[in-house]
Amino acid sequence: MFSTVTSFTMLRPDIYNPLLTTFEKVISGVEWVKPPPPLFRCFDGSSFGSTRLGPALPNIDVMLDNGQNWTLPGRRQLAGAGGRPDNIPYPASDNAPAIIFGNHQMQDNLVQFDLEKNTFGFSGLLLGRSTHCGNFNFNTGSS
């Protein structure tokens, strides 16, 4: 599910728990810090290396029903909280959709919702194309 009113992605516990366990293995040795409410897990951001796409973390690829990947680079996996990154996928309730994508993960992707066809499309991460939503030319290709 994609939500423009949910700030951060939420994952059902059967997905969240294995992801958090794997994430914590990948960043072993990084210090945890007390999260400010309502955040769940925070890490000391000074422990991460940096890339042009945010903290130096392996991408998280989410396979969608149509076989496409929604890729989350470091910048979209973590969000700043008081100057420190925070692990942003949150646990959701057991009866929630498997994944509820929040608007932080949708940033720097062009997302088109076609309500008549009940479909959506997305551009993929614009940052990897040296652009972002703030400087994208929406008139390209129009007549």
UniProtKB/TrEMBL annotation:
Residues 1-123 form the Peptidase A1 domain. GO terms for biological process: proteolysis. Pfam families: TAXi_C (PF14541). It comes from the Eukaryota. GO terms for molecular function: aspartic-type endopeptidase activity. Transmembrane segments: none annotated. Belongs to the peptidase A1 family. PANTHER family: ASPARTYL PROTEASE-RELATED (PTHR47965), OS01G0936900 PROTEIN (PTHR47965:SF17). This is Peptidase A1 domain-containing protein. It comes from Eragrostis curvula.
